[in-house]
Amino acid sequence: MWTIKFRNGSVKRFKFPIRTTAEGSIKPFDGKPEPGDLDSELLFTEAELKSPIATVMEEASVTDADLKKEWKMDDYANLV
Amino acid sequence: MPLLPIKEASKGVALAEPEIIEETVDILMVGGGMGNCGAAFEAVRWADKVDPSLKIMLCDKAALERSGAVAQGLSAINTYCGENDPDDYVRMVRTDLMGIVREDLIYDLGRHVDDSVHLFEEWGLPVWVKKDGKNLDGAKAKAEGLAIRNGDAPVRSGRWQIMINGESYKCIVAEAAKNSLGEDRYVERVFIVKMLLDANEPNRIAGAVGFSTRENKVYVYKCNAAVVACGGAVNVYRPRSTGEGMGRAWYPVWNAGSTYTMCAQVGAEMTMMENRFVPARFKDGYGPVGAWFLLFKAKATNYKGEDYCETNRAMLKPYEDRGYAKGHIIPTCLRNHMMLREMREGRGPIFMDTKTALLNTVNGDLSGPEWKHLESEAWEDFLDMCVGQANLWAATNCAPEDRGSEIMPTEPYLLGSHSGCCGIWVSGPDEAWVPDSYKVKADNGKVYNRMTTVNGLFTCADGVGASGHKFSSGSHAEGRIVGKQLVRWCVDHKDFTPTLKENAADLAKEIYQPMYTYQENKGGSTDPVVNPAYITPHNFMMRLIKCTDEYGGGVGTLYMTSKALLNTGFWLLGMMEEDSKKLAARDLHELMRCWEQFHRLWTVRLHMQHIEFREESRYPGFYYRGDFMGLDDSKWKCFCNSTYDPATGVTTVFKKPYVKIIPDA
Asked: Which of B488, B662, B664 should be substituted to probe chain A, the one whose Cβ sees the most A Cβ atoms within 10 Å?
């Protein structure tokens, strides 16, 4: 139960559920499927893997694609 | 007679020569937030099947039950696809983040995320269910036998968001992770501060080192594979909070950029470190606005009561003309962009019109049971995830049905899981639809999903760059992806024996250097916080955030910077690098604070280096390059990546091609 008291003295009370199972009761693997193929992208609880409905594969071209900047610790002292 | 301050008893655990604990594991998990809770859950299950001898260890700087960004709770899960295709999820994220994102990673996350949400509900997280047009809270839904994992309708606040009663969200997820691991496979209050490379194989992770924040112990781990997931970066820019309010921040203050710094320092390629997130939130309390905008349909208005997103519509045109801000999504940065204009031109304060929203919802009737229900929902939004905002409303006699509340863009945050996307470059899944340039080939020629460019080093959640909008659920799902890959890595590298370059005693000396610095110099002044030979972590942070704020585009300049301003900042940061070697700690708490400052300095400097490199304003409203105010696709429709070479100490920032995978709708 939350109690909120305002500067002007008015009081509000609220109560919300915080969990629906007993604390400490989680058994993470009970009733879960056995893991399958280690080399697939499926998580152990999953049976189906989606892939995109459609793809375009457009690489954006930019100018100065090879632009680079190197930073060494000694550089900083000379910047101002 | 009053004591001189130096004679005050230390407030934390006293420092002493540390005991060194050395341990060899197969899988090391650094961080205990949503990401690694997912990684633990998945890795244990696969390890149990394929090789139960694999040794797993998870280290959390805090305590799992309330660590990470979800520590305080949440009132919504922001990524739940449900009836939506992951393709549309990619389109939404791409639009919000101004076009340059890793669509493979986002799609991959979208196809797994719902499974994590269903697990949360099963474990005991109360998830709201819609029944006959009414909202049932998670407990009532369960009592009626309703659950979203069985196909019942969630309460959508937006297309991707669902409502929960999330005060104990992290406790529940942490309990599942702990029960998966068992008592012996995690340690709490151990702060890992450096990742370690192998002495024999180049570019190969071999371990990590850290220390206990409760006892004088240094932990040196050797490992075959590691995942680093310890959040984003907070207090790298001067916060708006001052004085008694300082420490209040939107994102958790314990996120010190450790993920980025530790991975970058061993050579991991970084991506989009110029990106940041500036959330517009309820002023001072940093209360969430999502439920107000989405669930209650409230409007944000200037002092005249105008919806500034309407009156400033023309500001979007230059971006729309270039193909941005299309569809129904106005990118978060552009919404800030419009708000900032109002503030600059004196049309603030900006208010969330809570009153109109609430009155409209109940047709003006504040006496019936519908109002009681609505009022409760409105307050729960804060009480579940941001109690301080509820406190501030009460302290200022602000009842949302009586008056609106001010909202304001906060200081910048660096993160990869919310509406921001800085982080580490990782491999996408090894599938035909993923471009080759997005796959990182490991030493054995194989591709390991979410592996960084360092062999055996993985990351997830806030760590993975160019892939925002994961939020809590997506971070957990991404952790699960990594959990499986860690096991796969260990099975494929069964014969690897990690060999550290450094010896444990030297590492311990390095970690405890701030203690020695203090011990050697404490006689130099009568006040322990002012000393000619050392600097306290608090003062170091103040120095750092003043510099970044003024020169790196913080709130002080309304997020404006330029090459000249940045250079002045770098000049100061160069001296702060020197000063960082003089950080001093009086107790274990301050030792933790010292290491957080090393991490902050590295991370925010890299952020500014990336901003310096990208000569355009890609995210107006998050930051501006005053010397390049436009958005320039011809030069910059690409990722900005960087690497640090641990052998030479050189950081190189460069362009990396962006590939559009998912077509426009």
From this structure: B662
